[in-house]
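A student in our group prepared the protein record below, which I am reviewing. Thanks in advance; the entry in question is below.
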Amino acid sequence: METNEIFAYIRISKDTSDIDNQRFQIDEYCKQIYGKLPDHYFEDVITGKAKANERELGKLLNKMKKNDLLIGVSTSRFGRNFFDVMLTGSILYDKGAALYTIQQNFDFSKRNPFAKVFLSIYAYMDEAERQSISDRTKAALDKKRAAGQKLGRPFGTTSSVLKEHQKEVLEYRKKGLSFTAIGKILGVTRQTVSAFLKAEK
């Protein structure tokens, strides 16, 4: 299948180093296979729990056409649940576009007769892994509560945390990211980001 334009999708987590890691993997793959970098980059700073049409992913899917290629690090980047990932795959399949995930070496397109089967398996495994992590986290927190430990960040430490990320906050603002987007990346509220930047002026 001929490839027209290549779209790179990166979902940003709270670990900001993950942005560069995902971009590096995608760039290296494209240079090796296609001899060029992706034609378009889409970076999401909203939680993966949001539906595709509420994220940059929704805008990306609307732009894609027949024989275009969407590349991501893994299927887990494209949604937080089974149905969200399958919806993304369905949209691409109907358009005649393709999806490739680097870590799984997975080609989801009409040229792969088992594409739908494997996408459903990967999407299910991603969701099961997230649920397992969530269950273990809740169990650990319940254990701490039962032991009388106070949970959460100590009072008055938010500003110091942002102080450690001063350079990143300023760079995100230069790129045009909103207070809400920056807050999601760094794990604080938009009000905290706003107050921090006002204090920095």
